[in-house]
Design a protein that fits this description.
Blueprint (H helix, E strand, L loop, with lengths): L7 H15 L7 H14 L13 H5 L5 H16 L6 H14 L4 H25 L1
Helix pairs in contact: 1-2, 1-4, 4-5, 4-6
Amino acid sequence: MFVDRLSQAQRQALLDLAVITAGIDNDVSEEEMQYLEELSVNYGLNLDLENHRTSSIDDLISVLDSKQSKVIVLQELIKLSYKDGHFGPEEQQKVFQIAQKLGLNDPELLLAIEKWVRQGFDWLHEGEQLLN
């Protein structure tokens, strides 16, 4: 998992940004909640569902100090956004806003990351179909 390449502080920032992203449409799905809980448990992170009201995105992204960490976080946020079956307009807007703040506002890069995530979901789905 690419999250393993992040420092503990970067993982916490990812989780906090994921809470913000999951809550943007005012409906945290069961799948999104499962993602947040797994990230928290797997890496010993503090899951604070109220955090989106107190943490600023600028403060959270300040620990993302390499292109690699920024791309991993964006990939994870897009992956989270797909957890409920679609990458909705509110989620897209929030992820693109975060991408801009990260300095990753190259449309081709964003499309490549989104394609990477979609292909991952397709790969998992195809595997499930083969096993059934």
